[in-house]
Design brief:
2 copies of one chain form a homodimer. Chain A is of the alpha/beta class. In chain A, about 30% of the residues lie in helices and about 20% in strands. Chain A folds into 2 domains: about 10-145 and about 350-365, Rossmann fold (3-Layer(aba) Sandwich), CATH 3.40.50; about 150-175 and about 230-345, 2-Layer Sandwich (Dihydrodipicolinate Reductase, domain 2), CATH 3.30.360.10. In chain A, the strands form 2 sheets. The first copy, chain A, has a 7-stranded mixed sheet, with helices on both faces. In chain A, β11, α10 (about 315) and β12 form a beta-alpha-beta unit. In chain A, α2 packs across α11 (about 350-365) and α5 runs parallel beside α8. At the A-B interface, β8, α6, α7, β9 and β10 of A face β8, α6, α7, β9 and β10 of B.
Chain lengths: ~375, ~375
């Protein structure tokens, strides 16, 4: 099976393919993930020709800096995709569901970070460090990236799985508010302002009363609190965030039978998702061996000397690219079981960085001789 | 085997035992848990004669309200335990290790909330709803209560264990700062003041720089952060908080072979510990059956309609007595596996309330005809 890509000639047709720089569109350029994406595109090797910024009509006309150049934002519409080789979508699911097919019809290969196409059997779900090969086969012209909670999990556990064979995962998340977009960040900042300097947090419901209706996109106050819910209700009491991590992990690891239980909890952190992970493998493992595998895994950094205060925390990893792994412990009950703690920037590797990495994979393929 | 209680005559000796009200001492009356304990002693049925308040020499001379009466605080010392029938210790471990034996030698039955004696084979470890019977056998004259993270776990899982037979637990905690005492609360409040109204939390280390040395009793900033560490280092990378929950759970449930993995994480919440729990049982279970068992368990309240925003959060349960259980889900992979989310007030059921309950058990026994 090869990629269905109606406009393959748009790049290859200009000659050998070498030398031509593909055009990139960023759809959702004015959002929280979009801002990080533009920053990532402005550093390191520049493989792109035009970088076109697209956002809702409301944001069109603004200018944003990318690669040091002020670039006007175009309104989302059919014309916006004319001549675009690769379109990265960093928009909510319902916008992606509507506009990704339009971009594909216009000849773009789409990299979508939303949940709209992740579980489509004809859409590869890609974490480049783990399954880059899957990005080459895209029957619908779409490559999806997983959710911002799945990403740090897979980057680290995929490496351990390759060496040790994963048989079960139990995951509890500590998710930052920016995973719910700029509205999530605004809600936490407003709530923190309401509780700072008070004696709140010691009587039932006092935080809830102080926050009132200002819960933002969350079903309960998140300042001085944790909220054991993310997403929408699914069957059996699960949240969509929880079933998402489960299904995405199984798909990316190619293990549709993997036992995996997930509990998603929102915490009062601006950016940086953390995960407490309990993993059972097919083979026995030591802490030393796990450290070695993780240290050699692309995109993963080991930070694990708790007696010296060395463990990953979101406040330390925010703004960095890799997934940070620490608190690696082997179960005293079973030499095949590890517990560990992972942190990653949910806007960066959790969304924008993973999308850029996929877009670069596609670009390399399009421009290959 | 019966309780070794050198001063049993001090109560029984005054007559039939009926009518005589035992004298209670609260050691650590001026601390965070002490304050809650005095509040609990001031409500409901009053079974105590004298209530004597004891604290460090530094706090002696202060007066605190208990049962509506201003009561002077006495300095901790050998004389302070004269005539005390039951002494509840709510002090740090090293103080308890030094002074509990003194109180016992003076004839008091001691209820200790610290870790000093919990794992002593001759000291029963008691959560009254689960193993009240164990409090009657106290070879050293001491009854211990478990740590504030173990308590909500055991109150709920003990009830499920009795019906379904527990075979494995995987626990991740979301622990409030008051679990580290008033210094923990002061540290979070100071840190929140430092970050409120700022744009902190979006660049690596910016929260750490703003907080500086003001981390209080924690090894990293806890405002706008989560800290995957509590306690002191133990073998194999585990923290003392984690091995504590493991060993205490096994002891209270009478299951020294229970498979249990724990990850303890501090979160920016003033009071209210939360737990994400993954439990495997010997028998199959449904969500409905689990709800039924939990709803009938003493000291447990079920709060589980997430689609209506009904789940336990620390901000809602702080200041309440019970352990709150929600987010009950059965694994799609195994009908013997449940995931659930528990919240409890770590100063109340997590420490003061459990100690009062144990003290009342002992008092009932001492005054029985």
């Amino acid at each position: 099976m090869t990629a269905a890509r109606p406009d393959a000639g748009a790049v290859g047709g200009t000659g050998s393919g070498r030398g031509h720089r593909p055009a990139l569109a960023v759809v959702g350029a004015t959002g929280a993930v979009g801002a990080v994406l533009l920053e990532l595109l402005s550093r390191g090797a520049d493989i792109w020709g035009e970088i076109r910024l697209i956002a809702s009509a409301r944001s069109a006309g603004r200018a944003l800096s990318v690669r040091g150049t002020e670039t006007g934002v175009r309104a989302l519409g059919e014309d916006a995709f004319e001549g675009v080789d690769v379109a990265v979508f960093v928009v909510p699911e319902e916008i992606a569901a509507q506009w990704v097919p339009v971009a594909v019809a216009k000849g773009s290969v789409v990299v979508d970070t939303s949940g709209a196409f992740r579980m489509d059997a004809d859409v590869p779900l890609v974490v480049p460090e783990i399954n880059a090969h899957a990005a080459r086969v895209r029957p619908r012209g779409i490559v999806a990236g997983p959710g911002c909670t799945t990403l740090p999990l897979i980057a680290a556990m995929g490496a351990l799985h390759a060496e040790l064979g994963l048989s079960e995962l139990v995951v509890s998340s500590y998710q930052a508010v920016s995973g719910a977009g700029q509205a999530g960040v605004a809600a936490l900042r407003a709530q923190l302002a309401a509780v700072a300097g008070t004696e709140l947090g010691t009587h039932p419901g006092d935080v809830r009363r102080a926050v009132g209706d200002a819960t933002g996109p969350f079903p309960a106050p998140v300042a001085l609190n944790v909220v054991p819910w993310a997403g929408s209700p699914e069957e059996g009491g699960w949240s969509s965030a929880e079933t998402g991590v489960r299904e995405e992990s199984r798909k990316i690891l190619g293990r549709p039978d993997l036992r995996i239980s997930v509990t998603c909890v929102r915490v009062p952190v601006i950016t940086g998702h953390s995960l407490s992970v309990h993993a059972r493998f097919e083979r026995e493992v030591t802490v030393e061996r796990a450290h070695e595998i993780l240290a050699n895994a692309p995109g993963v950094v080991v930070c694990d000397s708790p007696a010296e205060g060395e463990f990953p925390t979101p406040a330390d990893v925010v703004g960095t690219d890799p997934v940070w792994a620490g608190r690696v412990r082997r179960s005293p009950d079973d030499p095949r079981v590890l517990d560990l703690f992972l942190c990653g920037d949910n806007l960066r590797k959790g969304a924008a960085l993973n999308a850029v990495q996929i877009a670069e994979l596609v670009a390399a393929e399009l421009t290959a001789p």
